[in-house]
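Consider this record:
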Amino acid sequence: FAAFDGADAVRGMHLRVADATAATDWRLGAHHYREAGDLGRMIDVVTTAIPTIMGNGQYALAGSFITDIPPDLRPAGLALITSRVDMQQGDYLAAIEASQALLDSGLEDPVQRDHALLNLMTLHLNYGDAARTAAFADALIESGTDAHLRLIASATKAIAASASTGSLDELNQLLRAVERAQGADGALHLGVTLLNLAAVALLQDHTDQALRYATRSMDSLL
């Protein structure tokens, strides 16, 4: 195509596709903005899609777009994604530091603040720090603007408490409420919830139920 119509025509084609798809498919929109050389609009698409990226665990894919931007030129909110990539690679301390720095920067965007708290809550849970997990869960419950994330925070706090004095029945009820609230645009969140439900069912000796939850979790995560 470029050989016949020139680079400007190819760039124009990519921009038209990006403009037509960015609002409904962040991956396609970001790809075509990148191919058109419009990195600013590419990053705008990724930043706007942060809730979808976080809900579906699309960190590595989003990170592949972020690497095209020098660190000193990246919007601060993209640390939400890069910290999750660090977590996936096992670098919990770097992930915690990045999310904490973003939270401490005085975020004005309530969506990004909610997800910074979500990141820190999840990171400390995986790092094994129940006290900090509960503290960030409380902060998200009290100030979060997203009802679904507040519900996740309540369930996460119950998970942390279940290791010592918490009630498995209470945790099961909270997780089932989270499951009912989760839709198709959050496959990772749903998959994790179902996996947690499977673990609770197993602890309560409901092996058949645990297997059903685990199977559904795999279907959601794959």
In short: The two ends are 36 Å apart (CA to CA). The chain has a mean pLDDT of 89.
